[in-house]
Amino acid sequence: MNANEPVIKAEKLTKRFGNFVATDAISFEVYKGEIFGFLGANGAGKTTAMRMLCGLSIPSSGTARIAGFDVYRQTEEIKRNIGYMSQKFSLYEDLTVLENIRFFGGIYGLGNQQLKLKSDALIERLGLQPEAKKLVGELPLGWKQKLAFSVSILHEPTIVFLDEPTGGVDPVTRRQFWAMIYEAASNGITVFVTTHYMDEAEYCNRISIMVDGRIAALGTPGELKTQLNESSMDGVFYQLARGAKNSG
């Protein structure tokens, strides 16, 4: 990939389920090391769009390239170049912390020596030495989330996709989680994060706001607040959602 090319490029990306249009001709670009927020209420089409971008769901129409690979023809290459953390953190609760790290590291293609070094370093960085041999199911939710995120970038992917990563955790853990996101971005990993917490938009470099399957606004948090003369992202989202209802 050329260094100036976007690592995510979607053009009129659409997904239909029968007569229902889940995502309606969405277009946007995301660049290396950017924290890109994909905001919207539940049911707005965020998860459907993310699944297409991750190579987990084939679009109905439109185009997209992820880390230089085509979402129709190169889904396996896409999967090798991304990390993914689902809403339910996708760890095995009946495996220990260390077993989870080594299992997913193996799936991501890390060799035995590299895997041992990265596993030890990750457990030390998270301060999980006493819990390394505990089952993940015994950990508090916040620790599960932080571990799941760390595992998703263990192989140093080009992009990490985070689907509602802070759902259900307390405000302190949310701030800690976002500190981890900033660290990943500073290391050159592009972060694509979906959320319905409007205050989290302030943490992103740019945001796209989805309303009824469409991108209703795209820009930095400051730009969107200025355009709509609002002091908060909650106000921005309210105006956009109300405008969509009125036009429908």
TrEMBL record:
<dbReference type="InterPro" id="IPR027417">
    <property type="entry name" value="P-loop_NTPase"/>
</dbReference>
<protein>
    <recommendedName>
        <fullName>ABC transporter domain-containing protein</fullName>
    </recommendedName>
</protein>
<dbReference type="Pfam" id="PF00005">
    <property type="entry name" value="ABC_tran"/>
</dbReference>
<feature type="domain" description="ABC transporter">
    <location>
        <begin position="8"/>
        <end position="237"/>
    </location>
</feature>
<dbReference type="InterPro" id="IPR003439">
    <property type="entry name" value="ABC_transporter-like_ATP-bd"/>
</dbReference>
<keyword id="KW-0067">ATP-binding</keyword>
<keyword id="KW-0547">Nucleotide-binding</keyword>
<dbReference type="InterPro" id="IPR003593">
    <property type="entry name" value="AAA+_ATPase"/>
</dbReference>
